[in-house]
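User: For a reading group we're discussing how well predicted structures match intuition. Take Glycine radical domain protein. Before you show the prediction, I'll give you the sequence so everyone sees exactly what went in.
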Amino acid sequence: MKGKEMKKSLIEGEQNAEVSVKIPCEKSFVEQLEIMELYTETHRRYDSLCKEKREVECLKVLYPRMFRKIEEKDLIVGRLDFLPIGFGCVTSLGGVGHYCVFHKLREFERNIGKEYENRVEKLFEYWEDHDVKALFCRHVLTETTIGRFIDCDYPLMATARLSGMMLHYDWLCERGIGGIIEHIRDKIKADPGNDFLQSSLDAMYLLQTVIDDQQRKLKDACAGASDSRQRELDLMLKDLKHIRSSKPETFHQAIQLIWLYALVAGCINYGRLDDILGPYLVNDLRKGLITEDEAYAYLKSLWTLIENRRTTVNGRIIVGGYGRKNPKEADEFARLAIKVTKDCKYVEPQFTLRFNKETPEDIWNMAMDSLGEGATYPTLYNDDVNVPAVMYGMRIDKEAAEQYVPLGCTEFVIQGQSVGTPNILFNLLKLLTITLNKGIDPFDGKYKAGPVRIKDLSEMATFDDLYSNYKELLDYYMDLSIKGQCYSYECMNQEVSFLFTSILMDDCIERGKSLLDGGVRYLGGTNETYGNINTSDSLYAIKKLVYEDHTYTLEEIHEAVMHNFEGYERLRKHLLECDKYGNDLQEVDDLANDLYEYVAKGVRQRGIDAGLQYFLIVISNNQVNTEWGRCTAASPDGRLSGMFMNPANNPQSGAAKSGPTACLNSLRKFDPRYHGGSVQSMKFTPNVFNNDRKKTNMLLKTYFKHGGCHLMITVVDKGVLEDAQKHPEKYPNLIVRVSGFSAVFVDLEKDVQDEVMARVLYD
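Assistant: Thanks. Here is the predicted 3D structure of Glycine radical domain protein, as structure tokens, for the group to look at:
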């Protein structure tokens, strides 16, 4: 594969899971083209400057130009469009650094018409050599072992992104824009030639320009406004004038400042807003500056703006837990936020409750009520387990660990202190099928074992022979994963500084360095693993039926798998009937845990050896467990070729047959010290979850008391999902947990719907 063909294979196609339907750009196609051309020309013109100055000049093309008009019901200002070319942190909102999303540019080309074809083609040709992800892909991707995200033909996928940035919005509110500007100026006095500091200062001036533009938009909206709307617009205008230079003094001002900063920074997760906004809320209510209804309305407006960004797996807002400066005021915010979440029933924000033994009972009950009404939020994180686990896994002290926050599909970072973006994913089950087939992927017939010698089945006289050879292949792919993760940082750092994110992260301004250039306090990473439980169940079935009971030979099982069990229905029945993870069976769970710890410890140690603060696996799935399943051959647990894999560390659908207690007992056995987030999902009917709340509470609290770290819950009536698949028009707002994220059920692809439906529904 050479030249144009190679370039196309590396850069075209989907970059992320986009389930939520995007809101169309407000600008005409011609306007969009002109902006993309100006951005491209600016990038070209400033190519000889340092990366920081070029970044600022390119951002000036986008901001405030890409801000949308203020909508009628907005109580917080700030809506932002995105184009196929621009600047960003994550693929959910375009791309990474200076980006071009090539398949979206092609779609744009079809929409704008043939008379503009040459102009669009020039953009395409330029960004083939300058898009940050394309540069990363050319260096890292291979013919057979490493594919781009999302290319499920490969056992390992790699990407470049700065996912999950959780900034020090507390600094922003405590200092205000003016205070941060003064702080940067002071640092420049001590280091006048520092390009990063000077460009950071320019970025803050650009934020003020954005605020000026929002004021103009508000004045335009005043024309013809009703008296009640005029009062709302006047408040927004007054508060924008205030926060342009001064630190916020009210609940509304603080929300507004955080929101605008998040937009220009390209950050799509918002962190522990309860600890930041709680004191403003309580103060305003106590002084009579706002009513509870007004506070509710402001927060609902923020929730709506987050939902309208349509980032699918993000929008994290976290409340509760250890390490808060203002726990009482934060709890008041949490109560209000739970109420808004329950009433809105949005896909985003991904509203999250960190709880511990000190969490007020009424907040727990409100959370249960929200889940019981079908909101799918809050997701639940157990601080009494997670804080000590994060201390060990990330090698940090308790004070830092108490600031852990989950992002995306439950990966952990330390708010304001760490980068831990999940840029590597690998498929444990595909690697097992390759091990059983002499290094050749049975799905497409390609050799994917690299330099590892895969034994012939006849050489695998014992289970340990097989397991050891499989671990050799895992070792090889773990080596590839750390190299890919580290190079993603190196590649991004060569091109951009992510100025707005760096400004609000420890210790970038203090060190005078951007976050990937030695500025961030803790540089870590996460590695998403898939098919974990299918793999351990497959290994157990082989161990039991081949090496212990001698019911079949390894060759016979392999032959059946290679034929996708056609003509081998009896053998498949035996495989399916083998004991499975999720039923609190010690021997089965021990093997699952052994595999988990081998991979988790191996990934972690490779990160430490490479100089990262941490590199931890995330037992995730978003919907990639289904997408990767489509390209994974049949497996010895009885799973058919192309079928979805198990979700995260949950049992494969239909395998958990011993009730919710047994399932939760299996889930809690994985030692959380070795992972950086793990998804546990359960489905209940309203009958069992709401009408027998005492038993439900006992079930969940017992799970958490005995080591459960996390739980995501969907409450849905029996038969509703099946009916929604047949009659989607009847269920436009039915929300389900896919796993690391929620989604409107009818927006999911059919096989993703099938996977969600196939999970046990406890009634």
